[in-house]
Design brief:
With 223 residues, the chain is α/β, with parallel strands linked by helices. It has helices at residues 4-26, 28-38, 72-78, 109-119, 133-141, 147-156, 172-181, and strands at residues 41-45, 56-59, 68-69, 83-89, 120-131, 184-189, 205-206, 209-210, 212-219. The chain is globular and about 50 Å long.
Amino acid sequence: MCTSDESFNGLSTMFKNFLYRLKTRLLRKTRLRKYLQQGGCKIYFGCGNVKQEGYINIDVRWTPAVDIMADLDWCAKNFHGKCHEFYISHLLEHFNSPGKAMRASSNTALGALNLINAMLITDGIVRVAVPDFRALAELYVQGRFPLFPRLHGRLMGEQNYYENQHACAFDREFLEYCLKYCHFGMIEEWDPENEGFSRDGSFDRLDERATSLNLLARKLEHI
């Protein structure tokens, strides 16, 4: 049974979180102007609880790491053509699969990449990290890990809140295809540890096998 002090502390924490979320929304335009005035915008979208230094940390849900609470559509409207770099770590798989028809509506992975492309300057960088389906499938087939519990969440998302569910899977070939389809080129792998990143999904490993597929690409000039 909770004591009155525990109940008060719980309510106090909830109230503080509410105030922080409210403050984040009210200051959104003010912070936007500040970041745009600084120039050279670098966005980390879907930051969750991880703050990456040198980036504007954005998420649809409030956490202490969030600089601006917003969705991708809001970002696309307010950072159009302003970003030098856009980083998404273990987020693209939360958008719907484009299917065989390569649908590019806003709720698909292609739609998300198109919005990101619109935010970047020409030659701007998109940095992507997604669960590596090939690595996870090989670990399963080799019998090194059962589907549950170690692989299932990486494939399907933990689904402990609405946004935390996966709707698309990627191996390198398919992710490169999607990037090229959305007018990105000069694709290469990148290592978050070498880049000095704070630890997030891009560091994911199982039994010393990298299970995060990390690719970097540049926005091509539209002809």
